[in-house]
What we know:
By secondary structure, the chain is mostly helical. Helix content is 83%, strand content 0%. It has helices spanning 11-40, 42-70. Helix 1 (11-40) packs antiparallel against helix 2. It is elongated and about 55 Å long. The two termini are 37 Å apart. The chain crosses the membrane at residues 20-38, 50-70. This is Ssl2162 protein. Keywords: Membrane, Transmembrane, Transmembrane helix.
Amino acid sequence: xxxxxxxxxxxxxxxxxxxxxxxxxxxxxxxxxxxxxxxxxxxxxxxxxxxxxxxxxxxxxxxxxxxxxxx
Length: 71
């Protein structure tokens, strides 16, 4: 006898899909935050740009590692 709810996703599939959307949301929020920061700090970026880029890359790397460990 077939199950009457063959159309429904299992709870594991739903959790994976929600996690993927949540990861995408966090990534987009971080990218938008970085974009706004660079846009506001354009003059300072021209003077101290290399240092800021190194710090930003290090922080993005730590965030990516943390996200990989959590998700």
